[in-house]
Q: What sequence folds into this?
């Protein structure tokens, strides 16, 4: 028990080293360390009348753990009336020392007092952070907390014989000192892994999928469409003259144009579940799985009208955007994701070239008129020169 308590304190100390990068970790480490210290105190004071002091340490540790868990899952670290549990524990200890309660009865009442705290901590773990969704590590942490609340509830209700009370508490504390820090470490690792995936697959400027993310999503959706014989199409949106915007108004104006364009695409996609990504600097891709062709065409028209109507206000300047929207379909323009992406880029370049006024070669008459003008200018210049001596 002493060894497991020392190991638990060491694990919480390792957890505290990361408290600068994640909120609540330092508070969780202090609370978990107090729980482990309470287990050690329970072993050292086992055959004395002061063994109930371990229960007071448990209550303190659980209150601090509750505050840290709330912070870890993006909640205010407010205890409210839960802090009164500490006063109740102090009253129980006072009643024992004055002879109103026996040592075993005080221990059982302290175990019952910790049950709502365990359940409240488990309740707080249901709140997902912005960087994660519901996952097995948080579910495991909640399950462990509920199990401990059940065990302390069983011990407090006299369902465990008096002769086995100390042994049952020792086993419960031993398991808790090994399982609880592991669950918090696992939850932290999952959060950091989720955040790393988000950084790798999402564009920091627009919040859309980046090139890697949109390619991976396109591969998954194309395979699913081929498996279930559904339609699959890509809508490509290219912001025209984007380089000129950066050169004339600055990169901050270009970033603002990208963010507003991304917001327009999100609004048009709505709740349809379309995957949207920023493929290159000024190219966006929308993945359309199992959508009617008429709906795709309406969406393309809506995108073009909405982006062309955008007015970007930057400093004392104002400008409008212009875009080219195109679509390619699986089976018609390619059978793989990379063929479709190549096709959509080719189509965009064709549309941009078609909409750009072409510079035709000068005719022979224009060339002749230009040469005659040059010769006449030379003759005027020669006539104005003084004659040689």
A:
């Amino acid at each position: 028990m002493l060894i497991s308590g020392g190991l638990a304190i060491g694990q919480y100390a390792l957890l505290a080293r990361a408290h600068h990068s994640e909120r609540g970790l330092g508070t969780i480490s202090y609370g978990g360390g107090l729980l482990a210290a309470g287990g050690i105190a329970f072993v050292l004071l086992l055959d004395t009348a002061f063994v109930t002091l371990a229960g007071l340490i448990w209550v303190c540790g659980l209150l601090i753990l509750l505050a840290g868990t709330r912070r870890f899952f993006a909640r205010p670290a407010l205890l409210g009336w839960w802090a009164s549990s500490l006063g109740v524990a102090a009253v129980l200890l006072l009643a024992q020392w004055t002879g109103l309660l026996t040592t075993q009865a005080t221990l059982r009442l302290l175990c019952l007092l910790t049950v709502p705290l365990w359940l409240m901590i488990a309740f707080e773990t249901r709140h997902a952070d912005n960087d994660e969704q519901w996952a097995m590590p948080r579910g495991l942490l909640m399950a462990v907390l509920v199990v401990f609340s059940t065990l302390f509830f069983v011990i407090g209700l006299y369902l465990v014989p008096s002769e086995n009370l100390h042994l049952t508490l020792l086993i419960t504390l031993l398991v808790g000192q090994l399982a609880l820090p592991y669950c918090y470490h696992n939850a932290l690792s999952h959060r950091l892994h989720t955040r790393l995936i988000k950084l790798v697959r999402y564009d920091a400027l627009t919040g859309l999928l980046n090139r890697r993310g949109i390619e991976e999503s396109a591969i998954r959706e194309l395979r699913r469409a081929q498996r279930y014989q559904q339609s699959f199409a890509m809508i490509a949106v290219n912001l025209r003259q984007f380089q000129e915007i950066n050169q004339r108004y600055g990169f901050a104006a270009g970033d603002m144009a990208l963010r507003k364009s991304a917001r327009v695409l999100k609004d048009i996609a709505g709740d349809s579940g379309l995957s949207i990504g920023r493929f290159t600097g000024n190219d966006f891709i929308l993945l359309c799985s199992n959508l009617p062709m008429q709906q795709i065409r309406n969406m393309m028209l809506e995108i073009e009208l909405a982006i062309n109507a955008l007015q970007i206000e930057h400093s004392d300047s104002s400008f409008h955007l212009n875009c080219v929207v195109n679509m390619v379909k699986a089976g018609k323009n390619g059978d793989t994701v990379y063929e479709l992406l190549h096709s959509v880029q080719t189509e965009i370049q064709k549309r941009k070239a078609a909409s750009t006024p072409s510079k035709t070669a000068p005719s022979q008459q224009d060339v002749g008129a230009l040469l005659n003008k040059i010769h006449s200018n030379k003759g005027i210049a020669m006539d104005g020169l003084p004659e040689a001596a």
